[in-house]
Each structure stands twice: as C-alpha cells, then as structure tokens.
Protein: Bifunctional NAD(P)H-hydrate repair enzyme
Organism: Lutibacter oceani
Amino acid sequence: MYILSSIQMAKADKATIEISGITSTELMEHAATKCFHWLHTRLQGQKVKIHVFCGIGNNGGDGLVIARHLHQHGYNVNCYVVNFSEKRTEEFLVNYNRLKEIGEWPTVINNENDFPDVAFEDIVIDAIFGNGLTREPEGFTKKLIEYINNTKVFTLAIDFPSGLYSNSSVTDKNAVLKAGHTLTFQTPKLAFLLPENKDFINTWEVIDIGLDADFIEGLKPQNNYITKNEILPMYKPRNKWSHKGTYGHSLIIGGSFGKIGAVTLASKAALKIGSGLVSAYVPKCGYNIIQISVPEAMVEVDNDAALEYYNFKTKATVIGIGPGMGTVEKTALGFELFIKENKLPLVIDADAINLLSQNKLLLKYLPKNTVLTPHPKELERLVGTWKNDFEKLEKITKLSQDYNLIIVLKGTHTVVVNGTSKYFNSTGNPALATAGSGDVLTGIITGLIAQGYKPVNAAIFGVYLHGKTADIAIQNTAHETFTASTILDYLPKAILDLFEEEVENPEE
Ligand SMILES: NC(=O)C1=CN([C@@H]2O[C@H](COP(=O)(O)OP(=O)(O)OC[C@H]3O[C@@H](n4cnc5c(N)ncnc54)[C@H](OP(=O)(O)O)[C@@H]3O)[C@@H](O)[C@H]2O)[C@@H](O)CC1
Ligand SMILES: Nc1ncnc2c1ncn2[C@@H]1O[C@H](COP(=O)(O)OP(=O)(O)O)[C@@H](O)[C@H]1O
Ligand SMILES: [K+]
C-alpha cells in the first residue's frame, strides 16, 4: 500500500474528481459517510453524547456530513464550527446548509468562552484540520485542542489528528490533538508511523474512498506500507525436485562468552525459515551449546571466548554476522580483515554494526545490497543524532545511497530503506520487546537470502513475518510471556496466514 503525502493526496483528490466525473461534494459525502458507518456499527444507536468539532475547510466539511448522519440516526450529537478563519470552502458551505436544513444549527466557537462542556464519558469527533494544515494551530484553536486533550475523552480523528502534518515534524506538541483512533483517507500517512508522534497517534485505519489507483501509481510514491498484499507475491513456493542445496547455506557468525544464546537463536531462525543448511561460527566456548541446542546446525569454532580469526571453511551462500559478538579489540581487528576480504552477501546486526560505527572506513567494503539491521541506538552510533524522525529517515536514505546498503531500522513500525524507497511494516506488537527478538530477525533475513530472496525482499518479508508471529501469538498468550523463542514457534502460523483469506470489513 502506498503512503501519500498531503500534496500527493490533494493531487489524487483532484485527479479522481476530473477522471471519474464525480463532484468534490460527492467525494466528501462518500468519505464522511464511511466514517459515520464506522461509528454507527460500533455505537448501535447508544445515547452517548457526541461532540463534532468542525474546522472551516474540507475536513470540517467531513465533520458536518458525519454530524448530519448522526443526527438523522437519532444520536445525541452537538456540532460546532471552530471559526478560526472567515473563509469557508464550497464543500463546507454545502454541508453547512444541509445540516441547517434538517434543523441542526452548529454552534460557532469564536473564543475560549464558547468552549462546550465535554465529559470524560462523551465522544469527540475531531474534524478541525486535516490534509490542509499549513501552520501550527494557535490562539483559541490551540486552546481548544489543549482543552479536548485535557478531558481525556475518547477522540475519533477524521483523516488526521488536528495539528499533525503528514510529512514534517510537529514543533508545538501542545497544538496537536491526541487521537484515540484515526480514520484516515485512502492511504496511511508517514507521520502515523514515526515514534515522535506516539502521543497523537494511537490506533488508526485506512478508509478507502476510491481515489484513482492508476493516477496514484503514476505519482510513483516512494513510501510504502507493507501488508499481506505486498508480501504474498514475494513468496517463493518450493519445487518438487528441489533438495537442501537449492535452499542455500546460511552462516551465522557471532557469540562471545555468555552470549552464545544470540547465535543459537539466529541459527534456529535461519533453519526455521527454510535455509537448506545452517552453520554457526562461534568462539570455542559456544561449541557444545550450539551442537546440543541446534542439532540441525553445523558448528565451526574460532578462539576461546571471543572471535578473533574468522577463518571458517564453510562455503556459505550468505553470512549473518553480529549477534552476541562483542566488540573487544581482537574481535574488532579480525572483523576488519574479514570485512575487507569478504565477497559474500551479508546481514549485519548488533555488535557488527557497532564495529562498523567504530571504523566507518569499512562501510565501503560491504558488498552491494548488504542488509544492516540496527535498532535506533545502533543507528545513532552509525549516523549520529537527528533533530526529528524525518531527519532520521533522511540520514538513513543517505547512508543507503552512499554505500548501496539496505537498512532495516527496527522499532514499532520497522522500516526497510533501499535508496529513496521506504517500506514500513504493519505487523508486530510490544510482545516483541524482549531479549533476543532482534537476533531471531537476523536469522530469518539471512535464511531468506540463502533461499534466493533478493536482499531487499528478504528484509521486507522477514520483518513482516517476524511481526506477524507476535500478532498471531497474542491471541493465545500474554505480551509478557512471549519470548524470542516464541517467535520461532509461531513462524509456521505466520507463513500459513499468508494464504488465508481476509475477513471482509463489515463497513465496506
Ligand atoms: N474532495 C476532497 O477534496 C475531499 C477532501 N476531504 C477532506 O478534506 C480535507 C482537506 O481539506 P482542506 O484542504 O480544505 O484542508 P483542512 O485541513 O480542512 O483545513 C485547511 C483550512 O485551514 C486553514 N489552516 C491551515 N492551517 C491552519 C492553522 N494552523 N490555523 C488556522 N488556519 C489554518 C487553511 O487556510 P490557509 O492555510 O490558507 O490559511 C484552510 O482554510 C481532508 O483532510 C479530508 O478530511 C475528504 O472529504 C475527501 C474528499
Ligand atoms: N513495541 C513493538 N512493536 C513492534 N515490534 C517491536 C516492538 N518492540 C520491539 N519490536 C521488535 O523487536 C525486535 C527487537 O530487536 P532488538 O532491539 O535488536 O532486540 P535484541 O537486541 O534483544 O535482539 C525488532 O525487530 C523490533 O522491531
Ligand atoms: K481532523
């Protein structure tokens, strides 16, 4: 699914109106009616008090349409116009009049004295600002947003939480509405996927308003939201005449005294995702541990308690390096020689990323399409700090372009960056916030590359499946009891889920 910016959304709105011949008011009616149905399905006519706050642009127009439908269905609805400007859009005015025609006169809010009483148990619909936000809300509009936030009432935001931009950072955090749920039109918005906006975005979903798909395709959006639809075509089914050699040989390099578990998890993951063969290259102290805990894997050993020589004999298809490796001097020196000589595809994680950060000259030796899987702290060591999440994404893009790398920045919405293309993951939940889950991801991506997946696809596919295990598991287990090993237990279900049909959305 593409992620569109505000400018792209406005272009797609306009183009759809021209191409399909429907009017802008009809498009608004269609979009806002879907939002009403979303609410109606859940409320089933309950007499809860609903406050609809409308701006004076088309986001406000949506609010007016929703208020009209709520009124006509007998809900206890209060509609307000937040009068921050005298200009009104045509679609706003059409719907203002339609609301008046059915006997519902919105209350105009001109200053703080006009704020209505809002109780914790009420519902607020936020239709103040949407796609057309050009600057931060101020004056009484900002005060209204603060006022609503302070009530802690459930807030349903239409298209955007008011005050949030799609593609740039908020500078005044008090001027953004904290949405309980957001119904956004046509595509996810980049701002919803960034940790800096965690206070404003809770849950959200996309309402398909039928914008022209060919036109959107022609915009060549660079930001993507990865769901099952994008993942399924990547899947490589197995051939009847294949054998273990067909599915490659993953070599996992890492471990140090006390941290052999990381290599164990990564090796198990590479096997479980289907790598034909898996070997581990660990310090001597890890030999028995891996042999006993992963009988399917082969093991080669280096020096005693930490890697030093990197002189393995395994003829691997791909190497995953870093889990539990440590950064002591001898490991770092050996790593430098290894990187300078290596020609095999690489997945680089954890301490191997930290060693690259300590010696950035090594970056130029990495084979094209090497996958790096940093968490934010590891990324910071590599590229320095950032002012905000948009600048962070720019820094990752530059790193990816400068060295032809694929960067997997891990987090709630892990993003895979390949040059200017970005792929944000849709799966996963806080169950994954547990020791070793990153090591498992390294093994999964390595094992997919071994089987012939293009590195960028291996990264996108692996991240999706990794998150999906937690989403499936959480139906039967608690967040707390999910561990990195549970990811492996649920990999079969995550793969099988790809072939299950989605349940129809009742509102569609
Ligand atoms: N057919 C369609 O197009 C469809 C559109 N749809 C809906 O339209 C929404 C976009 O509508 P929109 O473009 O009218 O912008 P919106 O967010 O309502 O507000 C912009 C107004 O606010 C003003 N303004 C901005 N910032 C401000 C500030 N800080 N403080 C004060 N004023 C500020 C700005 O004026 P200006 O910047 O020029 O001063 C302008 O007057 C979109 O999110 C979706 O909900 C759907 O119905 C689907 C069909
Ligand atoms: N709240 C969350 N929602 C979704 N995914 C998460 C969440 N917290 C952590 N994860 C995922 O868990 C993994 C953690 O990796 P990492 O930080 O390297 O852990 P470790 O070093 O313990 O292996 C990443 O893939 C990350 O995306
Ligand atoms: K809004």
